[in-house]
Write a structure and sequence with these properties.
By secondary structure, this protein is an alpha/beta fold. The protein has helices at about 10-15, 20-25, 40-55, 55-60, 120-125, 135-155, 165-170, 175-185, 200-210, 225-235, 240-250, 295-300, 350-379, and strands at about 65, 70-80, 100-110, 110-120, 185-190, 220, 260, 270-275, 280-285, 285-290, 300-315, 320-325. Helix 2 runs antiparallel to helix 3 (about 40-55) and helix 3 packs across helix 6 (about 135-155). The longest helix is centred in the last third of the chain and has 29 residues, at about 350-379.
Length: about 375
Amino acid sequence: MKSDKFLIEPDFQFFARNREVVNMTKTVNTQGEYGEDGLMPPDDARDFFEMIQEGSEFLKQLRFELVTTEKGTLSKLGVGGRLLRASEEGVDNNTGNEVLPIIGAVKYECKDAGLGTSISKKWLRDNKSRENFEEMFIGQIADQIRVDILDLAFNGDTDTPSDDPDVEFLVINDGFIKQIKEKGNVVDGNNLANGYFTKASFFALRKAVPAKYRNPKFRWICSDNTYTDWYEYLSERPTTAGDTAIVKGNGIEVLNTKFEIVPNFPDDVVIYADPANLVVTCLEDVEIEKADKSETSINKRVQYYAAHVSNDFIILEPEATAVLINRGVVTTEDSSVATVWPNSALHPFLGVFLWTLRMLLQISVCRLSIGCLSHFSKS
């Protein structure tokens, strides 16, 4: 597969931590026991993907499956629910109530992808004193693969228009967003709160997933802009939630559910899902190659590196996922008023006015209550 070349300025300090793992691969030297094709031994391929996961807290939450064939099935196993029965000594309550495992399978088909880069031999000469350069450079390549896998896992779409500037990247495979839109539960933001993005959006997403699937591991998966919009909205509110948003910063939650931000995620989409239900399938045949003796390499005075991986992205239980499409702008909690907070062009001060009125009413009620108590105590 064709891949564009790009220049990388290695971050030696960061990738020093990965040196041991990268050294184990021994695939920079293509004369290893796996021959001249640069193919990693299976154990080293596992280490390579573990290194990729270690660079992202969110990737570690996704389920990674290392497979040996390009096509196949992943098994899913369950036992159902509400299976406990009363138990008494001397009484057999299990016969006839045995649990039958629920066995299913999900198909996968890994698609090839490649990443290529080159470094001038002059740069190599000028930096030859840097220890274990190639090992750490492979770590740099692994880091780029990590970013691209997470991006493609959600944003991939084989139907991407040909005029899209990222079409060669996006058409590699279908990602989770497209799959959930086709097989999961879809909530249209245009039908909620007059099209605005409010707490109703989160309630609708949560309710769209059957209760039997919901668990504390679920996450709101969105773009950085979506998270920032909601954070800004909360921080501007003259309430305890606003104070919490300012103090906690990146730790805000909705319905006790954390946010996860994905690079290049569309701003008009929010996913509600358990990351463990989203599977990244990786073929263990990982190749990392170096070319420095070819005619092109000699004439251009550069050294080429390339990495080849094969992946597929599957969802074990599509019914246990939900996606919000057509996310609108944030608004006040009163969706019937649908006033944008805090800078509505239509009613710029209505939110402040309503809040002030509510505070005055609460003060009046408190004073009235105190007056009544004083009257009864005197009588």
